[in-house]
Design a protein that fits this description.
Blueprint: H1 2-6, H2 8-17, H3 19-27, E1 36-40, H4 43-60, E2 64-66, H5 69-73, E3 84-89, H6 96-107, E4 111-116, H7 122-126, E5 129-132, H8 145-161, H9 169-181, H10 184-193, E6 198-202, H11 208-222, E7 226-229, H12 231-235, E8 246-251, H13 258-270, E9 274-280, E10 290-294, H14 303-321
Parallel strand pairs: 1-2, 1-3, 3-4, 4-5, 6-7, 6-8, 8-9, 9-10
């Protein structure tokens, strides 16, 4: 896991270098007019798809839906999707229900794109166009470089299909390099959280999927149950668990929703919880008792990639501090063959 975390700047740089080829491939299957998107995924890929929902709708202005695969694989629903672009996401490309759902969506009229790390996989074969992640073999069970590569692929798709830039890619790659070279903040935070049995992850908008993924990473590497929430969903009930025995990790980046995360951190602190912020140094989470700093200046739409690296580092060091092998979590396998 540690070695694969370190590979991420190079993985993203290679993917960005193919942006023109990706744009050309996507243009070949773009419906005219484009009425919307349907995204199909499970696990970490599903969290990446939540990011895809935000970035695609932001860039194109058309609605984005997350598929409910059981409707296709168990109930036989064939949705009417003329004018829609369906995007299947599976880092291995070997999750059966994702490939099967994509086949049904194509039968319903959608044009199809697959995002995966294996161009010979069933998902790749089920889609009209494949965007290879190009991350190389990923041997640790927790997804790291394939997750951030999927985020980058979604941002590149949004850039190709929409009329808004997703940000400064060279600056992002530089920020990723800085992040993987110094994990001091994550080590320090792991020492603070090592005894925690109740954890919350909080993020909004483009960082909401990072909160979801951080929860999954910590759960699968340590066995500690933790969930991700948006600040507003947190206030709709889950904040009731917050007391002196709860720790929370709040993900924040400068932008329109930073104040919402700041308020959530303050509310959690007021109830006795201890807050760790993943944010720029001097950022918008003054209630935090610890900071995992991210390099400053990354565009808001691309910041989730850097925050994801910090979440991965935190999960890695928390697992090690608890005496758990993060590469081989108990009872888990690299490919989960859900149908």
């Amino acid at each position: 896991m540690a070695a694969e975390i370190a590979e991420q700047p190079a993985v993203i740089a290679r993917l960005v270098a193919r942006s023109s080829d990706i744009a050309a491939a996507v243009a070949a299957v773009r419906p005219d007019p484009l009425r919307g998107f349907v995204l199909v995924a499970r696990g970490s890929s599903d969290h990446a798809a939540v990011y895809g929902r935000y970035v695609l709708e932001y860039a194109t202005g058309v609605p984005v839906a997350l598929a409910a695969p059981s409707l296709q694989t168990r109930y036989g629903v064939v949705p009417r999707l003329d004018g829609f672009l369906a995007i299947g996401v599976s880092q291995s490309g070997r999750t059966p229900e994702v490939a099967a759902t994509m086949e049904v969506l194509q039968a319903g009229g959608a044009r199809t794109i697959g995002l995966c790390n294996d161009v010979g996989s069933p998902l790749a074969e089920a889609c009209e166009v494949v965007v290879p992640l190009g991350a190389g073999p990923e041997r640790a069970v927790p997804a790291t470089k394939t997750f951030t590569a999927t985020l980058a692929a979604f941002a590149l798709l949004a850039q190709a299909l929409g009329d808004r830039s997703t940000g400064d890619w060279p600056r992002l790659v530089d920020a990723l390099a800085v992040a993987v070279d110094d994990d001091t903040g994550a080590r320090t935070a792991a020492a603070l959280l090592v005894g925690a049995q109740r954890l919350l992850q909080v993020g909004r908008a483009f960082l909401y999927p990072v909160a979801l993924e951080a929860g999954l990473k910590i759960t699968e590497t340590t066995g500690v149950a933790t969930n991700g929430y948006s600040p507003h969903d947190l206030r709709h009930g889950p904040i009731a668990v917050a007391d002196a025995g709860v720790h929370a990790v709040c993900f924040s980046s400068p932008g329109p929703v930073a104040a919402d995360v700041e308020r959530a951190a303050a509310d959690l602190t007021a109830r006795g919880a201890r807050v760790v912020a993943v944010a720029e140094r001097g950022g918008d989470v003054p209630a935090a008792s610890a900071l995992i700093a991210v390099p400053s200046g990354t565009d808001e739409l691309l910041a989730p990639l850097v925050h994801s690296v910090r979440a991965q580092q935190l999960a890695l060091h928390l697992a090690q501090a608890r005496g758990v092998d993060p590469d081989r979590p108990f009872g888990l396998t690299k490919v989960t063959a859900t149908e």
